[in-house]
Amino acid sequence: MNFLIIGDVYSKSGRDALQKHLKNIVNENQVDFIVVNGENISHGKGINKNHYDFLKNLGVDVITSGNHIFKIKETIEFIKETKDLLRPLNMYDSLPGNGSVVVEKNGLKIRITNLMGTTFMDHVNNPYEIMDKLIEKNNSDVHIVDFHAEASAEKMALAWNYDGKITALVGTHTHVQTADEQIFPKGTAYITDIGMTGPINSIIGANPDEVIFKEKTKLPTKFIPSENIGQVRGVLIKVQNNKVYEIKRINII
């Protein structure tokens, strides 16, 4: 079974690129299951209901997120009705939404879990404690984790800790695709960051001018999403008999 995991879709350029390329990627790689991180899909921060529907209409099975999941007020309400739009599992229990979901497809129970890091990020609960409890009761055939985190070492440490206990851990959040895709000794597939599906010639999605101005002056600045042509970035993970035998980066303009 082939799993396609697409990195943070950023604003209109990201949406346009996904709409243009997704069908071809799916057909060429015989993709069976699609996961998309959608936390930046609406104007660079958050996901509204229209853009949730946009992803579902493209055939996306599960939508993950991160620290921007509740940037748009309406998300707080509609996420209650959508089991397949995830917010990080280790966010406060009082927040609405699921952090992990099991979807049955092609005769397999597929669990997708969304976690958030603790280094240089908004405060969340300990991801290890949350994952330990989840794994104790997990009976899925495939378990893929989107770890939305800033620090590379934090992503690596979590993945190594659960090597052999989960199918794959893919990093999101930094919007920069890393070249360290690998399969760990006990079988877990890993990449530090799958990258951003969004505008090229930008600074992680935003117009360079505003970002440079803030860096130079340290003054409050509103970042404006770039409208340059978009790219699609992510990974393809191939699983047979519940074991990963290949992880491959996707990078299409």
From TrEMBL:
Active site: 68
Binding site for Fe cation 2: 39, 67, 148, 173
Sequence positions that bind Fe cation 1: 8, 39-40, 175
Claim: Ubl conjugation is one of the keywords in the record: no
Top-level taxon in the UniProt lineage: Bacteria
Pfam families: YmdB
Name this polypeptide is given: TIGR00282 family metallophosphoesterase
